[in-house]
Amino acid sequence: MAGLDGKGRSNFIGMLCQLRIRDNTHVTQQDPVRLTTDVAKTIQMVSDALLLVDRTIPVSLQPLRGCADCIAARSKSLAVAASQLEAYAGQSNGDITTLSTALASMAESCCVMVEAVSQAVFLLGLQTKDCQEGIPALLDPYPFVRGRLAVDLALDVLVRPVTADSSPVDHQSALGISAVVATQLEAVQDACIASLERSPPGWVKAQIAACNRAVSGTVTAFVQCTKNYVEEPTEGKLQCLKAFATPVLNSFEALELFAASDKDFAGRPPYMNNAARVLVKSLRSAALSSVSSCALLLKALKDCLTEPHSPLPKEKMTRYSLSLEDSLASLGTAVSAILKARNLLAKPIVPLEQILKTETELVDDDEEEDED
Questions:
Q1: Secondary structure, 3-state, the chain
Q2: pTM for the full model?
Q3: With left for phi above 0 and alpha for psi between -120 and 50, is residue 70 left, alpha or beta?
């Protein structure tokens, strides 16, 4: 499951921001350029992982109406965050807490909005007349891609502390990093367990089980090092913590590569008729345009931070903020068009919790027929 599950798995930027705005000392020493870069990486990740591919399994258990409500709410949050960033850029000495909060809101809102768009696209293949259900992928790459990026950004704090003066990582920061890693581990474990249920007996099933044990073991060792460092924050224990951070990141990277290593893992997306494809094209185009506007806005913000006396980046931020508003309006229009397509959404809704089970049974039946 993704950010729509309510477990905060797509809010890792917000969790890392808490390290940056925890107290006044860290607020004044915080490096806003680095945080802006992290947010840009996050929205690019979710766009590439969800908007440029046809999913074969649901992102969450959200129904179509729930996706529409989520998109509307997150669109408002994105617009507010963009306005706050634009206002910050126009100040000579802005509040870093405001900047961190706005950036965290943009990152999470963009992730969850795109997840809802991807879920809505998937549901059109289930609820649209004359469409056909697909075959679920053995491995869902999205939790692994998201987990690798979140862990990478979190563990990078150990190498390059979040403060501009590179002060040592304190115990609160270590706990925050560990919380991000543990949250992503939970998401990866859920994805592995779901994959095991879909996988037939053989090397793939055995490999997934082994990967699950491997990533769990490395994270367990890292968390124990974190506890030791928190109890007694010595330089030696900090070096131990950094040493165990490397296998954690390597295990997440290996999972991501494994999920993309074989085309047979991919499954088959639901078949959509032409009317459904038109709705999907409008929805995806508006979402991609919104993400692109956010990316351009963040690039202009970085220019503002590095060139505070130049008027050009501020002008670009205003232009990109207006572009984001237009894109979000188009997204809302696309969602409304889907909800109004009563004659199109005529197929009975298939309960999402039964999709994987039903499709797996169909695959098993096909294999039995082939054996006969």
A1: CCHHHCCCCCCHHHHHHHHHCCCHHHHHHECHHHHHHHHHHHHHHHHHHHHCCCCCCCCCCCCHHHHHHHHHHHHHHHHHHHHHHHHHHCCCCCCHHHHHHHHHHHHHHHHHHHHHHHHHHHHHHHHCCCCECCECCCCCHHHHHHHHHHHHHHHHHHHCCCECCCCCCCHHHHHHHHHHHHHHHHHHHHHHHHHHHHCCCCHHHHHHHHHHHHHHHHHHHHHHHHHHHHHCCCHHHHHHHHHHHHHHHHHHHHHHHHHCCCHHHCCECCECCHHHHHHHHHHHHHHHHHHHHHHHHHHHHHHHHHCCCCHHHHHHHHHHHHHHHHHHHHHHHHHHHHHHCCCCCCCCCCCHHHHHHHHHHHHHHHHHHHHC
A2: 0.86
A3: alpha
Backbone angles phi, psi at 271, to 5 degrees: -85, 135
**What is the reported pLDDT for 364?**
43
pLDDT, tens digit (0-9, with 9 covering 90-100), for 35-63:
899 999 999 999 999 999 999 989 988 88
Instruction: Give 184-201 pLDDT, tens digit per residue.
Output: 999 999 999 999 988 888
Spatial separation of the C-alpha atoms in residues 167 and 335, rounded to whole Å: 47
Q: Give residue-wise pLDDT tens across range 284-293.
A: 999 999 999 9
Higher pLDDT, 199 or 360: 199
Which of 60, 45, 195 minimizes the C-alpha distance to 107? Answer: 45
What is the spatial distance between Cα 120 and Cα 126, in angstroms, rounded to a whole number?
Answer: 10
Q: Is the dihedral of CA 103, 107, 109, 113 positive or negative?
A: positive
**Residues 163-186: tens digit of each pLDDT:** 544 556 777 778 888 999 999 999
8 Å CB contact between 119 and 112 = no
